Protein backbone atom coordinates (compact mmCIF):
# COMPACT_ATOMS: atom_id res chain seq x y z
CA UNK A 1 0.00 0.00 0.00
CA UNK A 2 1.32 3.48 -0.82
CA UNK A 3 1.90 6.07 1.86
CA UNK A 4 0.14 9.44 1.55
CA UNK A 5 0.73 12.57 3.61
CA UNK A 6 -2.14 14.75 4.79
CA UNK A 7 -2.34 17.99 6.80
CA UNK A 8 -4.89 18.58 9.53
CA UNK A 9 -5.40 22.26 10.40
CA UNK A 10 -5.82 21.36 14.09
CA UNK A 11 -3.36 18.47 14.65
CA UNK A 12 -0.73 18.98 11.95
CA UNK A 13 0.68 16.51 9.40
CA UNK A 14 -0.12 12.80 9.49
CA UNK A 15 0.44 9.74 7.29
CA UNK A 16 -2.28 7.57 5.80
CA UNK A 17 -1.61 4.17 4.14
CA UNK A 18 -4.26 3.70 1.44
CA UNK A 19 -4.83 1.55 -1.59
CA UNK A 20 -4.56 3.52 -4.81
CA UNK A 21 -8.27 2.87 -5.40
CA UNK A 22 -9.10 4.48 -2.01
CA UNK A 23 -7.05 7.64 -2.62
CA UNK A 24 -8.94 10.94 -2.25
CA UNK A 25 -7.95 14.60 -1.99
CA UNK A 26 -9.04 14.73 1.63
CA UNK A 27 -9.52 12.27 4.49
CA UNK A 28 -10.60 12.62 8.10
CA UNK A 29 -7.89 13.19 10.69
CA UNK A 30 -7.42 10.10 12.89
CA UNK A 31 -7.28 12.29 16.04
CA UNK A 32 -9.92 15.02 15.69
CA UNK A 33 -11.98 13.63 12.75
CA UNK A 34 -11.70 16.96 10.87
CA UNK A 35 -11.45 16.82 7.05
CA UNK A 36 -7.76 17.15 6.08
CA UNK A 37 -6.17 17.92 2.68
CA UNK A 38 -3.51 15.84 1.00
CA UNK A 39 0.08 17.12 0.87
CA UNK A 40 2.03 16.65 -2.35
CA UNK A 41 5.77 15.91 -2.40
CA UNK A 42 8.31 14.35 -4.71
CA UNK A 43 8.35 10.56 -4.38
CA UNK A 44 11.25 8.91 -2.58
CA UNK A 45 12.30 6.54 -5.31
CA UNK A 46 15.95 6.12 -4.35
CA UNK A 47 16.76 4.15 -1.23
CA UNK A 48 19.55 6.06 0.53
CA UNK A 49 21.33 4.81 3.63
CA UNK A 50 19.84 6.14 6.84
CA UNK A 51 23.03 7.99 7.90
CA UNK A 52 23.21 9.85 4.58
CA UNK A 53 19.48 10.64 4.62
CA UNK A 54 19.81 12.11 8.14
CA UNK A 55 22.79 14.26 7.09
CA UNK A 56 20.82 15.57 4.09
CA UNK A 57 17.77 16.35 6.24
CA UNK A 58 19.92 18.18 8.82
CA UNK A 59 21.78 20.06 6.10
CA UNK A 60 25.19 18.91 7.35
CA UNK A 61 27.99 19.91 5.00
CA UNK A 62 30.60 17.29 4.14
CA UNK A 63 34.04 17.53 5.71
CA UNK A 64 36.59 19.20 3.44
CA UNK A 65 39.66 17.05 2.90
CA UNK A 66 42.82 18.76 1.71
CA UNK A 67 45.29 16.97 -0.53
CA UNK A 68 48.58 16.30 1.21
CA UNK A 69 51.69 17.38 -0.64
CA UNK A 70 54.15 14.62 -1.36
CA UNK A 71 57.61 14.23 -2.79
CA UNK A 72 57.97 13.11 -6.40
CA UNK A 73 60.65 10.65 -5.33
CA UNK A 74 59.11 7.75 -3.54
CA UNK A 75 56.98 4.69 -3.77
CA UNK A 76 54.04 4.90 -6.13
CA UNK A 77 55.42 7.86 -8.03
CA UNK A 78 57.34 6.22 -10.84
CA UNK A 79 57.54 8.07 -14.10
CA UNK A 80 59.87 5.84 -16.12
CA UNK A 81 61.17 7.62 -19.15
CA UNK A 82 62.89 10.92 -19.88
CA UNK A 83 63.84 13.53 -17.33
CA UNK A 84 62.46 17.05 -17.73
CA UNK A 85 63.27 19.78 -15.19
CA UNK A 86 63.48 17.45 -12.21
CA UNK A 87 60.45 15.46 -13.36
CA UNK A 88 60.43 12.45 -15.62
CA UNK A 89 58.09 12.17 -18.54
CA UNK A 90 56.66 8.97 -19.81
CA UNK A 91 56.41 8.86 -23.57
CA UNK A 92 55.28 5.31 -24.27
CA UNK A 93 53.26 2.91 -22.24
CA UNK A 94 49.63 2.42 -21.53
CA UNK A 95 48.56 6.07 -21.12
CA UNK A 96 50.33 8.38 -23.57
CA UNK A 97 48.16 11.36 -22.59
CA UNK A 98 49.59 11.26 -19.05
CA UNK A 99 52.83 13.23 -19.37
CA UNK A 100 53.65 13.09 -15.67
CA UNK A 101 53.04 15.25 -12.66
Write a structural description.
The chain has 101 residues and is mostly beta strands. Strand 1 and strand 2 form a beta hairpin. It has one helix at residues 50-58, and strands spanning 3-8, 12-17, 26-28, 35-39, 82-84, 87-89. The radius of gyration is 29 Å and the shape is elongated.
Nutshell version of this structure?
The protein is built from one helix and six strands. By secondary structure, it is mainly beta.
Question: What is the overall number of helices?
Answer: 1
- Overall spatial form: elongated
Ends apart, CA distance between termini: 57 Å
Biggest sheet, open or closed, and with what strands and sense? 4 strands, antiparallel
* Count of distinct strands: 6
Helix content: under 10%
Percent of sequence in beta strands:
25-35%
Query: Strands of the biggest beta sheet: in what spatial order?
Result: 2-1-4-3
Question: Spans of 5+ residues with little confidence (pLDDT < 50)?
Answer: none
C-alpha Rg (nearest Å): 29 Å
What's the SSE pattern? EEEEHEE
By secondary-structure content and strand pairing, the structural class works out as mainly beta
Amino acid sequence: MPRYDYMCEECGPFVQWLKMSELTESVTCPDCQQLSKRLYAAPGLIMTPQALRQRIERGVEPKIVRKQSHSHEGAGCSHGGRSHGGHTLSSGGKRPWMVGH
